[in-house]
């Protein structure tokens, strides 16, 4: 079985590293070649490439999946876009993203630690010679928790001498794993603290076997072992500092290493983009439904806006979602 993935990125070096093509994963072949015309399923990761605009389907319309990337507090995917797909893997609330093929995603994201998915899945050990790291740039944004994250990190940095900070404008690194592999502990703060939504920040840390001080998805303990990370309050830096220092003094890393290993196993075998896609494919095939022709094209979201009806519909959908989230 061949599964084609379209991504919004046009950089070959990005897709080549994080979406190696072709790649064998649990009996399926994943390809990330926009020009591929022989495939059994089509997956669009967030957006159809704007350079492509339209994908002429080479598979049944029922074999199409959209995987959303952003939380519902940042980005809304209008019905004119989502209804092109038979399934949607998302962390959006089902009241926000209404779709008959809705599937709650868990870890259906791209790992950005600098290793390919197969390299990460090898589950190597990493000698730990350093204590604590974080990766933050000097940039501040006000529409997310970015500014709070900066205040938080600056406070911890001022009071915990073992913290080594990496990021653009501070201490730049070529690969994210350079700031993870050698460290027992890592601080990961999400831009958005939304239930069921987590980005690569936590998996990237766990893949390097770090014990992560984490602020983000309040439901993450329902997916990964609670002992594999330590929650910290982003709104209370002094309390977070006390948690961090107590954990380091108590050698929490060594005590929690089995849980961290189990979390990494779960990420590599279940809570990743590839297995989340394969779960939907297996579910569909088990239904043994007759395949119908249906749609023959998948359009880029921006291309759809050329139609005034779609543009107005997207505006109404945005107003509806804002009302839902604000009530």
From TrEMBL:
Gene3D superfamilies: Glycosyl transferase family 10, C-terminal domain (3.40.50.11660)
InterPro entries documented for this protein: GT10-like_C_sf
Source superkingdom: Bacteria
Protein's UniProt name: Glycosyltransferase
Species the sequence originates in: Candidatus Akkermansia intestinigallinarum
